[in-house]
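Sequence, structure tokens quoted for completeness.
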Amino acid sequence: MARAHPLNVLATLDRARTQRYHFTAAAIAGTGFLAGAYNLYSIIFVARLIGRVYYADEIASPGEPGGQLPPDAALALSGVAFSGTFVGQLAFGWLGDRIGRRRAYGWTLALMAVSSAASGLSFGREAKAVLATLCFFRFWLGVGVGGSYPLSAAIIAEYANKRTRGAFVAAVHAMQGVGILLGCTVALGVCSVVPEADHVWRVILVAGAVPAALSFYLRTKLPETARYTALVAREPKRAAADMSQVLRTRIQEQDLDVSVGRIDDEWGLFSVQFLKSHGLHLLATSSACFFLSVTYYSQNILQKDLLGKLGWVSPSPAASMGAVQEVARLARAQALIALCGATPGYILSVVLIDVLGRRRLQLAGFTVMTLSMLALAISYDHWTSHAAGFFALYNVTFFFASVGPNTTTFVAPAELFPARMRCTCHGVAMAAGRAGAVLGAFGFLSKGADSKYASGIGTRNELFVLAGTNFLGMLMSLFVPETRGASLEVLSKEVVYESIDMFMDSNGE
């Protein structure tokens, strides 16, 4: 059944000057995303401490000292969070299109806050009991974190104006870097005041509930997005009333200044109509997310070995320093890596995304990442004896990933698809990325006891493989259209404006 969309309120949102409510919406969505990043990445410190506390007298694997998580325990601890995130991205993406962004986002934040607190309270006297309860709560934490991806992206994309939409969505994604730094800061702070290692990891996890709870409260300050209310819930008058309060202006639908096209609301994600209109977009965005994550998460796994080779953390923790001291050193090293690579990249992506466009940044990022991996692979023998040089080139990869595809693969799916399928499609793209993360992470982590990792930087063949995945990501990026400066409804083919000038940016692009 076809219907016409009342779009005066949406045209008003597209033309609105950047003002306070834009920053409020970004802060709300960004705080939830920060909470998710904090809770996912803080497991690095937690795993170290649990190994030291519960496996101090056990040998993790042949030839390894005690005080480390056995490979199967490490796989389980990482795997449940990945699995939960995958489920959350698909489930809450679908829910966001069914019950509304604001309501579904509240559920993800509540789940995240409760699971964070419960993770720190994991009970049991033996290692297996503690890990079992921790894995249970980490799975549900992952579900909440996964849900924050499509919902936070859709919320800020639908609130933003078309001129600065990319910067605001990128800023929300950049809160991932802030979450990583916050995790390092909390770890350092807790290590300085809490002497017991078993208490340190619990406090670190419980602290993750704070930003999630804060975002849950702050989301009550803004109404449902006008695009969901008008286009999905079909209540244009309520959308106009909500946005009139937010924009502090009066919006009347009878003043509609666009001619509205028609859209068939019957077809769904698996229909022929969707494949014709958006199938290539979904394939391209999902594939780019997948290939990016293979490289990004495999590098995170290699990172711990590199830090040991540089002497920033102990390769034999049980023999050299206390558990709390070791985690403090690890937190400082992680903060340095984030400050040198990822964080500057996130900042630059916010500055450039509405200037150069999403497509250019993504292509440039994948290109540099490909060249970096090739440089490491071709000169592999040199890098095995020059860890500092490897570290510098390693950070170049993270920097350009953050400037380009790590940000743009989050932005593009929030702009290309119709409002009634926006969260679902974004969740599918992010879930494809999570599948790539599993392949990249477990492909390396499962070989953790292999002697070929003694150098701490993997093997030449694996680096060539990562160069290949980056190249494939670059190729798939060619099929992602540029979205800079265009109305969401035009990009998703939901409306046709009277004049092309109404949806093009000031540069006519």
